[in-house]
Amino acid sequence: MTINTYVKEASYGKTMVRFMKKDVCPESKVHNVYEMDVQSMLSGELDESYTKADNSIVIPTDTQKNTIYVFAKNNDVSVLEVFAAKLAKHFVDRYKHIHGATVDVTITPWSRLTVRGKPHNHSFIRNPSEARKTHVAFTEGKGFDVVSSLKDVSVLKSTGSGFNKFHKCEFTTLPEVDDRIFSTNIDCNYSFNHFATLDELASYDFNHAYETVKEITLDTFAMDDSASVQATMYKMANQIINKLLVIAEVYYALPNKHYFEIDLSPFDIDNRGPNCSLYQPQAYPSGYITCTVARD
């Protein structure tokens, strides 16, 4: 017996398309560099390329790669979200059987090098503990949905965090603690309200939004007298939504990277509680806490 099947969903594209673009200001001769990793994915009337091996409707992924390069050469790339939106719309406008496109962009964070107290015109240093990303989806006749991200920011504070009065059962061995090391690797996605047109999207200051999300996240981490990872991440997300009205929801994933007290009692040394100054970093297991906070 043959069971009937159908293509429920399909898309394809090119991933890990990398480039470095250099922009030079004609007047000041100051350089800016943008190293990016781009992925494009197309969807539409593609079923027969799967079910009937009809390649006539397949836009080669190599063509998508070349399109990304040409767009990067001919367009401003300084705002990830706008560049991604223009590229996604191009794919849908250019090919009549393509009705949707998503573009993901990750930028490598090169910061201007300070030399003898002044920013250097054309020298940069990489910050390995930060990644900025965006995911832009364009649907024909509907518009744009944008989710941007602050990722891979490793932070630690040596006090200002505790964890107590938690639920206990027969399997609980964790002691309550009023003061502990709080370390995590920040993963934050922030989703924007729907943009109906490219002009509406392009008029928004996405770079300011990114800097605001980063500032609130790091300031709250440092300043909050943290009762738990859960409580701190909610404060972060709540402030972002109240500060940036165009953001609809914020997602955080914060692994709790543990540092445990080292027992030195066999050597008659007190390294417990308020006398603890020596900790054992724990590679695994770690806590993993997530939360999505949305506008009501």
Automatic annotation (TrEMBL):
It is an enzyme of class 1 (oxidoreductase). Pathway: Purine metabolism; urate degradation; (S)-allantoin from urate: step 1/3. Urate binds at residues 61-62, 163, 180, 229-230, 256. It is found in: Peroxisome. GO terms for cellular component: peroxisome. It catalyses: urate + O2 + H2O = 5-hydroxyisourate + H2O2. PROSITE patterns: URICASE. O2 binds at residues 61, 256. Keywords: Oxidoreductase, Peroxisome, Purine metabolism. GO terms for molecular function: urate oxidase activity. GO terms for biological process: purine nucleobase catabolic process; urate catabolic process. Catalyzes the oxidation of uric acid to 5-hydroxyisourate, which is further processed to form (S)-allantoin. This is Uricase.
